[in-house]
Specification:
heterodimer, A: alpha+beta, Glutamine Phosphoribosylpyrophosphate, subunit 1, domain 1, Penicillin amidase (Acylase) alpha subunit, N-terminal domain, globular, B: mainly alpha, 5 helices, about 85% helix, about 0% strand, elongated
Chain lengths: ~800, ~110
Amino acid sequence: MRLLPFCFSSLITILLVFILNRPVGNKIPMPLGSFLSPQTGFWQNAEDTAFSYDLNIALSQLKAPAKVYLDERLVPHVFAQNDEDLYFIQGYLHAKFRLFQMDLQTKAAEGRVSEIAGVAAIDYDKAQRRLGMKYAAENTLKEIEKDADAFSRYSAYTNGVNAYISTLTHNRLPIEYKILNFKPEQWTNLRTTLLLKMMAQMLSSGTERDLANTNLRAILTLPQFNLLYPQVPDSLVPIVPKGTIFPRPMHGYKIPSDADSVYFLNNHSVAVNDPYPQDRDNGSNNWVVAGTKTASGAPILCNDPHLELSLPSIWYEMQLTTPSSNVYGVTLPGSPFVIIGFNENIAWGVTNSQRDVKDYYAIKFKDAEKGEYWFENEWKPAQQRIEEIKVKDQLPVYDTVSYTVFGPVMYDAAYADTVTHQSALAVKWTAHHTGDEGNTFYKLNHAASYNEYVEAIKTFECPGQNFVFASKSGDIAIWQQGKFPDRWPGQGQFIMPGADSSYMWQGYIPQLENPHALNPNRGFLESANQRPVDGTYPYFIPGTYITPRGVAIEHFLSQMNSVTLQDMMQLQNNYYNILASDMLPVFLQHTDESALTPEAKKYLGLIKQWNYDAGPASVGQTIYQCWLDSLQKSIWADELGKAGPLTPIPEEQTLMELLKSDTTVLGFVDNKLTPVIETLTDRVSDALNSAARELEKADKEGRLQWSEFKDPAVYHLLKNNMLSFARTHLPVGGAGNTINAIKKSHGPSWRMVVQLTAATEAFGVYPGGQSGNPGSRFYDNGVDTWAQGKYYQLWMMKADEEKDRRVKWIMNFNKG
Amino acid sequence: MKFLISIITIAVISFIAGLYLPWWSIAVVSFMIALLIHQRPLASFIAGFAGIFVLWMIIASFINTANNSILANRIGEMLGIGQNPVLLIFITALIGGLVAGFAALSASYLRRD
């Protein structure tokens, strides 16, 4: 033995293995040796493009044999003998194709991202825990456990997910686990309810602005506030057709005696603001056209939910069949049932209600222990949850969350310590206490008539949704369904006093009085996140409504007759900027050409020729957007900037309405920071001059066309940390206010058009693919189809069509 | 002859071990084979290096061709080498080869008088 060389060489070997077996750092968190090894690492995720998904598997949990037919887009058509087997297989397939996404999203909902991402995510995790996400999920799970049938369905789903996880070896782990260097965790029913709460958070947590409103009230008078942030916009086209007579309600509420002197007069600002706001455009379109207006004589139902666009997509397409039901549509990996789709008798879709169902109450703690708070003239004990936040490569962090009669204390001295004036803020949110939201979808999957649809949705509480409906028997309907507090006017717009019960919610709007419409004479119904009713609705219903898309849909649908499926696909892809068509003439009227720079004059000439199309090649849309942004900043920044950087400026819609009646916009047009009094003409002309500078720069970079300027993308769930798994530079147009509401990375996450003829004709597309594996050809195969505005025909397969050429692979699930 | 047999043995046994054991089994296998089939240090190193370099290159190339380079392009971007599957395969093989080469070299020194 040659000792020295041996030691030296062995040392190098051991060092090499040691280094390659450890995470390199934050940028490359995976151990390189294992990651590069073609037998264990990422190469194992590079799926053969001719891979066969055929499968024969025997599982002891199954009650009967079942079959899954995978078509050419990898959509599974599941044929099971009973519900439990059906949802078991749904869980198995969700896990097989989307495991990382389910695991990550439910961990994020629960506030456990730090376990994967380290210290950077601690504040995010605290926010989730303080919002009471797990508490809410536990409460819903308790309700599920009271219903034996529902419980067995969720349990079957959970068992299916776990049956797949138990087959996983390291080399077959989804690639994200290999990169982030962690392992999937067993599924539980709680994780399914966490996923449902994640949807509730996405859709009903950001639909209030109590903190920002409170800050705004510190600088605006109440009349100013109500004009800048109006409850009922002038141009509103509500979901329930105007002229509908609403029953007079029996309000049970009592307005607090000190509301005028304390609540509405409040001029304290709070320095805290929601640190992780939800996208305000988490909205959607849906509409339904009656047979009287269609070429076929059968109703057509359309839906496109606008959400954050991601790879893998939030949706997974499936057909679920048992002897007692047959349903097709999109599912949410992490939950059983079809969420948006159709069966042999009906079709349904959803959009967000945008209703405010979350309020803040100011809480005074006795001391820093947060164990007691002042309520009804005494120190009342608070329930406390000690939250242990596990952190990757670090010791755990602990956070104490106190629960009051209102709900959990979201902000106090220990979290977001910028709270001023208020000792602490408790949050009251309908999502904290709900029944089994999933049961609505189970029932919709089986519903065959209008009455069964109403029966299915009436227990749905949060997030409030606009359920649109059509049936083969010819009915069309829409219900805005949710559990909504019966507020006194103004209740819950601002932070409320929490020292006694006088400001608490005193009741809920009766379910039967939720806004709804059935078979209107005009032959169509639509919703697009607008206020559901006009000012005659006898309840106070604040929310973050979006008006323009509803106006546009109504504008087009009301003119159409003999509607075809193609017409509806075109309407979903419509880029007409209806709000700009109202706003631009006001801009042009107030432009002083003599005050414009040569560049600004050039762009003025260009935008005068604009036809309000916000398509990918549109230059007009780019000019309009820059001009508008610049004008909004100059009008609002001097005054509203004082309320904090995250304060939402008034809606574009509101600005347009104000400009039409008052060219000083309540005096806001004048810049308070200068001695002279600016006019609207000064402001509009200046805004175009500064927009022109930005446009010149964009033009030099070849980014004047709208799709180049906006540069839309669909990112992987890990966002900027995994850009190579994203699809960027997509050639699509659109804006938040156009029907085809594509923003930077947000928009129609699923487009569906269903015609309820005897043999249903359905089309759909989403910007992603059925496989969550970036190494599969089915990872992003739908993105280009979606970007081109094209659709796939959705195939409701029959049991005897096994030999159809669309069936590419067969999975046999046998009883083991 | 000895040299060729080493290379082939290291590759074949490492492949089988890789089906069941962690990636670093290549170091163990190379070490053991180099102990059993004794060669001069340089020859041992090259045999270990070549055995795994060729094995990993073949597997990765095979997978990459069947996959149409879909994933290799994405991982290449992620690792900062761009859409270059050939380079990624080379890096993969090089890393494996180095580990195995040094393991075999150590074994050669252990047995050498």
